[in-house]
Amino acid sequence: MTACGYTPAEIDEMTLHDVLGLFSYWRDCPPVHEILKAVYRIEPKAKPAVAGSGGDPSGISNLIARFPDGFVKARESG
User: Is 76 helix (H, G, I), strand (E, B) or coil?
Assistant: First the structure.
């Protein structure tokens, strides 16, 4: 969900006419969070580094190692 309330699917479905209309509206009534960022010169905070190896920040290699065939097997009860 974007800051303006649109989902990625809604954005993908927008026509050029819809986008130009939205830009026209924003010219007269810009989103408040954007005004405040400009007035107070607010910069986004840097995201903290992910713990672990520097070569695999997502940790996907651990999942691949645990499920090499790509299937997650249910535990057997008993």
Answer: coil
Chain-centroid distance, C-alpha 24? 25
Radius of gyration, CA atoms only, the chain: 22
Tokens representing residue 3 in the block: 């800051």
Task: Decide: pTM greater than 0.90.
Answer: no
Q: Looking at the domain assignment, is residue 12 inside a domain?
A: yes
Show the DSSP H helices in 1-78 as ranges: 8-13, 16-28, 32-40, 60-66
Segment 18-34, tens digit of pLDDT: 989 988 988 898 888 88
The phi, psi pair for 46, rounded to 5°, reads -70, 140
Give backbone dihedrals phi and psi of 56, rounded to 5 degrees, phi first: -140, 75
Domain membership of residue 25 as a residue range = 1-45
